Amino acid sequence: MSKKLIVNRRSVLKYGGAASVALATPYFFTRGALAQSENYRNAPTGGTVTFGFNVPQTGAYADEGADELRAYELAVEHINAGGGGMLDTFSSAALRDAGGGVNGKKVEFVTGDTQTKSDAARASAKRMIENDGAVVITGGSSSGVAIAVQGLCQEAGVIFMAGLTHSNDTTGKDKRANGFRHFFNTEMTGAALAPVLKNNYGTDRKVYHLTADYTWGWSQEGSIQKYTEPLGWETVAAVRTPVGAGDFSQYITPILNSGADTLVLNHYGKDMVNSLTQAVQFGLRDKQVNGKDFVIVVPLYSRLMVQGAGDAAKGIFGSTNWHWSLQDDASKAFVQSFGEKYGFPPSQAAHTCYAQAILYADACQRAGTFQPSVVGAQLEDFDFDGLGNGPTTYRGSDHQCFKDVLVVKGKENPSTKYDLLEVVEVTPRANVEYPAELLGGELGPYNDGAA
Amino acid sequence: MFSSLSRNDWLLLIVFSAIVLVLPWALQPIGAAYPDLLQKFAIFGIFAIGFNILFGLTGYLSFGHAAFIGVGSYVAVWSFKLLTMNVIPAVILSVGMAAVFAFLIGYVSLRRSGIYFSILTLAFAQMSYNLAYSVLTPITNGETGLQVRAIRQTAETSLRDGDVRVIDQLFGIPEVGVPITNLFGMKMSGYPGFYFCAVLLIICFFIAMCITKSNFGMMLKAIKSNQNRLNYTGIHTRPYLISAFVISGMYAGLAGSLLAITDPIAGAERMQWTASGEVVLMTILGGAGTLVGPVLGAGLIKYAEQKVSSWNEGILHNALSALPDGVEDFLVGLFSFFVGEGWHLTLGFLFMVIVIFLPGGLMEGARRIRASFGRDNSSKASGSKTVSQPAE
Amino acid sequence: MDAIFLQILNGLDKGGAYALIALGLTLVFGTLGVVNFAHGALFMLGAFCAVTLHRILNISFERVSETQKDFLGNPLKEQVPYLQEWFGPQVSEFLLDWSVPISILLAIIVMGIIGVVMERGLIKHFYKRPHADQILVTFGLAIILQEIVRHYFGANPIPQSAPDVFAGAANVGNWVGLGDNVIYPWWRLVYFMFSALVIFGVFAFLQFTTFGMVVRAGMQDRETVGLLGINIQRRFTVVFGLAAAVAGVAGAMYTPILPPDYHMGMDFLVLSFVVVVVGGMGSLAGAVLAGFMLGILQSFASMNEVKSILPGIDQIIIYLVAVIVLLTLPRGLMGRKGVMED
């Protein structure tokens, strides 16, 4: 409905019609205007097509957002040039063959600030859809935001390519036909991490969870328990901590007397930086409990967070979607092009966003249109390689990418300030796969936002 | 009650309504004429007008009004989930529930005044936010936010993940996927949504105007100028204060329900103290105590948040491409501090400049400009007789 | 027993931090009558004094390494600190190790100057203005300071480590005859002692010096003091500088506990206001008392035993206590009549 009015009003203004008539007669001009072009939301008409990059530019994840934006700019550069970076190693040749641009159109982009708040993120996404004519919204650095924006894109009729979002719900309970996620989730983290933890720390562990008190935290806690308890690990206590607590001392001291010998920090961002720093300060890692060394595990790692935690992260296990030290051709090509442009290696957030931009553009090129339902069909069950994670599939039943998961460890002797994580193991994709029904939810039908 | 309105007041109302209704065209040149931002202008305009009834008239500075926006949003979404996608029940229930909350919080908080009152309201709002984000997840859906869903297939599905919508089901209204809010069949997103908000904004403006000019309004202003004197003369001020608090809470509840109507999701962040702070800033920026000021302030802050934040370097280069290269690069470098990711900086400077040079907010500026042209009469005509009586 | 003892330690430690942050705020309230929303930003600036000092000590020149490679495979350019080059690695290591305590000196100087400039340049003009205006202008200033810091340091937290001597945890249990499981980080003990020292110092300054006496008199009745021919204005400037310096050192010393980022001021702002108001506006002793009280209550509310009875209590305890205190004691714990009530 709203779409009709926009197209309607614009076309009327363009043809010099009386603007006041436009709102009074919603249906007349719409049909005519859409008859020539394709019938979907924000169908590009000129020689350009607009992508919308919705990233946190202010707030706690601003650095991550800035890195995402860098990656998007690089991706747009490569798409418009028909090559460069991981586009050269990508298994699908459609964009390279096109020789620049998508469907013969040059890619332009608009940006928005999510502020890592659902309301603000939806508002900026709406601006890019309603005002700037974006055909796709992508980016973001938290699951709450991703789910909120995904819902919006479904209503508005554009594709949403999720950025960094790790909660199961994004492609589980809250999945939507118009939404796609390349990043991994808590389920995969649990499955990938458990065997490594068993090999390093044995089967007899008493675990204490500190969990950020919101959806992602609970989901992460659940996944770790689900995969470690069959190995013989036992949960002593799972304590919820308020988001943004700052000082975690009152949650750390009870661990000392709990008889636990393992601490799992289901925290992300600033919470993780603070709780890890403080837990190490409390001497937990110097302790011996039940005749074993006390250990700490951080299920979800990001290099930027490790940078914030400093020495505290050394030797601590976690999982990550991608790391720049990977030695496959695709990762090397990406690090090379990113590094040459910006002077430092990309983060995992940058990688997933770059990959999402390329995957979307490629699907459009193969589809020959930007129409969400047709583009989505190209992405569904699409097998590809050469984007840094090895052979990958975009599963059609829940729009989740399945690929290898990296288990990493804080590096003991970093050579540079970026060299903070070392890859301990690459858990093969087969080990982290799960049936789509496991997480519930329903994709529903595609929405093209057609009039 | 209308008799207290002068001819000039009616004139102001008409001008105000006209401006609000032509916004979709008037704002085209500054790139703000798209449904979402227009809706936000109207919604936060309502919020700020309501806040001003409490703060502008009585001088009581509440730091917890965002809680009522949150209550309004949650109630509205629950109404969509349980009853119907029609917006009328949502609006009525939200405003009603916000009134109940406002009465409870106001009854307690108004036992204190000054900064003690501010901190009490802040404390209530922060408690609501913290609980909504975590422990109350069964009602609020926590971090993800409460959303409208498709009709649930089985009774085992939790109400958060599947809706019942008994009234719609009773009338056999068909649904495909997740439905959109409507007003008796008219969809409430996009421009119709804006006009719905705009009409309510005008009604709210009118009500606020009546309140300001009424005896009740006089009493509130008397509380602001000297509450002790009122007490000495044997007047109980608390009932008046509680009424004002509840009314402004209802405005906030309405704003909250409209947020959910134009965009059916309700999240806890709406209740955070920063959201409460935002409406304080809107009101002071525009001019506390004036009728138009808060609406202006709301518009300005929302514009900065949405548009200024989107001007990245590419857009700057395009805008300044007419200039010589060196000058262009320099200006782009300079401006990029203040726009895009630096939009907070612009906001910070704006607050400081306004409050240093225009203590009465933007409306004070407008008054000064008029005064400098020697047209003192017209300043009265604007209905801003209460202008720039700063709140102590 | 162990658990309770540890939570008391936590509470004291937290309370020390709260009290220290609230102290400057209430000092400015009480003397100048100004609601300073930039106080959190001053705390944050203090923390970044520590970061800056660390960076200054680390100013380096590049030397191309023969053995190591950087992430692009080019020869690594090693960063060699000038300090190391001039004074040898031992001095350099020592200074870097102790950079947080040393930064107290920097913080006192820098923050004192910032405080005086702020008072003379801005706050002075707002004494007679309504509180709402004071809030708006200081909030604007806080945003600006915050954005400037973000521009130079980024949004990511920057870790600072305590000197090696204070790394790890002390076996407090052995000192008081409790089990081996009662350990507490050295640096937190240091921070507690430090905050007690600063609080004591500020009280002594106000109690035992002539200057302090005049300021206290000014807090009671500014006009009369002015009529006595005392230049109360100049003293207030010093008080503001003192408040800024206290916030600054509080921030600098807090960095090993909480890696600082540009937003940490805002995170502490609401909390410090609650502490000040619960203590009673303009009362120094009240702020300290309220700081410790809220710190201890928050620690106990976070215990699993308590949370299992009242889920989520740890999230709201501070605000709940604030409501209860303000409803039973009209002006907080030790507030005076007439301050900030109109």
Report what the structure shows:
The complex is a heterotrimer of chains A (451), B (392) and C (342). With 451 residues, chain A is α/β, with parallel strands linked by helices. Chain A has three domains: 2-36, no CATH class; 48-184 and 325-403, Response regulator (Rossmann fold, 3-Layer(aba) Sandwich); 187-320, Response regulator (Rossmann fold, 3-Layer(aba) Sandwich). Chain A has helices at 2-14, 19-24, 28-36, 62-81, 94-98, 118-131, 143-156, 186-201, 215-228, 249-256, 270-281, 303-309, 329-342, 348-367, 372-379, 429-432, and strands spanning 48-55, 106-113, 136-139, 159-162, 179-181, 206-212, 234-241, 262-266, 288-289, 292-293, 295-300, 317-320, 382-384, 392-395, 400-402, 405-410, 421-427. In chain A, the strands form four sheets. In chain A, strands 7-6-8-11-12-16-17 form a seven-stranded mixed β-sheet, with helices on both faces. A five-stranded parallel β-sheet of chain A has the order 2-1-3-4-5, sandwiched between helices. In chain A, strand 13 (382-384) and strand 14 form a beta hairpin. Mean pLDDT of chain A is 87; it is low at 1-36. Chain B is globular, with a radius of gyration of 22 Å. Chain B has 392 residues and is mainly α. Chain B is 66% helix and 2% strand. Chain B contains 17 helices and four strands. Chain C has helices at residues 2-32, 39-57, 82-97, 99-121, 131-153, 172-176, 186-208, 210-220, 222-227, 232-254, 264-279, 284-301, 304-309, 313-328, and strands at residues 60-69, 75-81, 169-170, 184-185. In chain C, the strands form two sheets. Chain C has a two-stranded antiparallel ribbon with strand order 1-2. A two-stranded antiparallel ribbon of chain C has the order 3-4. In chain C, helix 2 runs parallel beside helix 5 (131-153). The N and C termini of chain C lie far apart (46 Å). The relative contact order of chain C is 0.20. The chains are: A alpha/beta (451), B mainly alpha (392), C mainly alpha (342). Chains in contact: A-B, A-C, B-C. At the A-B interface, helix 1, helix 4, strand 2, helix 6 and helix 7 of A face helix 2 and helix 8 of B.
